[in-house]
Design a protein that fits this description.
Blueprint: H1 2-8, H2 10-22, E1 31-35, E2 38-41, H3 42-60, H4 64-72, H5 83-90, H6 94-113, H7 120-146, H8 151-164, H9 166-169, H10 174-203, H11 215-222, H12 224-244
Antiparallel strand pairs: 1-2
Helix pairs in contact: 2-3, 2-6, 3-7, 7-10, 8-10
Length: 246
């Protein structure tokens, strides 16, 4: 089971590794081992580890100090937490994260040697992933800067959580309950306010539509790949009907 986990994790953290290697920001510290021609240093891994935790807290809106507590003691993770988030927190020990980092590096080095990163389709996917990640992290940052949660709000939500799940939240100290309550309130705020924040961002950019181009018609009928997909679907249907005929 452990090996399967290692094979899945590079997809989550490979971008952090690529940034570290690309900008040469990970060269200090003691050499841990050399993989191919790349020297893995203590500072390089420390920066990767820090970036991985920062990425998690930004994406989830979680309180960083609370994330640290859960990394130290994963048994404190509430039962109603999303399973993927639970797995990510459990994986955030240095030993697990180093294995993830090491596996990602090995795959990336071999992929580069094979010319995989030079393929236009791969470059397009990488560019798309970077753009989506920037948009996601920036939106989270904007939301975090705007949210205001009072002590009264946290207390009320704490009481609500203890009513909903006394087995999980009842044994917590008041401070711990407040931290979980803050996380729940942030998640709800993000869900409600994301469209509003996007509208504010959108107002800062001028978008000029080409009046001579029918965008709706193009999106409905003019995208070549989608038309190809539709044609293949129709062909499959026709083939199935033909094979069923006597």
């Amino acid at each position: 089971m452990q090996n399967h986990t290692h094979l899945q994790k590079p997809r989550l953290y490979g971008a952090l590794l690529a940034i570290c290697l690309l900008f040469g920001a990970c060269k200090d510290g003691e050499v841990v081992e050399t993989i191919g021609d790349h020297r893995v240093t203590t500072a390089e891994f420390e920066q990767f580890y820090e970036a991985a935790i920062e990425k998690f807290t930004m994406r989830t809106g979680a309180n960083k100090s609370r994330v640290y507590q859960l990394i130290c003691d994963p048994s404190q993770i509430p039962q109603d937490v999303d399973p993927q988030i639970r797995e990510t927190i459990r994986s955030m020990t240095p030993r697990n994260m180093y294995q993830i980092y090491r596996d990602s590096l090995i795959v990336e080095i071999v992929a580069e040697e094979d010319g995989f990163l030079d393929r236009p389709d791969v470059q397009q996917i990488i560019e798309l992933t970077i753009r989506q990640t920037i948009a996601e992290l920036y939106m989270q940052e904007m939301l975090k800067n705007k949210i205001r949660i009072s002590q009264e709000d946290k207390q009320q939500m704490c009481e609500e959580l203890r009513r909903r799940d006394p087995a999980t939240y009842g044994p917590l100290t008041l401070e711990q309950c407040w931290e979980f309550a803050e996380g729940v309130l942030k998640a709800e705020y993000y869900r409600q306010k994301t469209p509003e924040i996007y509208a504010e961002i959108r107002e800062r950019i001028r978008v000029r539509r080409n009046d001579d181009f029918d965008r709706d018609e193009w999106l409905d009928n003019g995208v070549e790949l989608y038309n190809t997909i539709q044609a293949e679907c129709r062909g499959d249907t026709a083939d199935e009907a033909g094979s069923a005929a006597p």
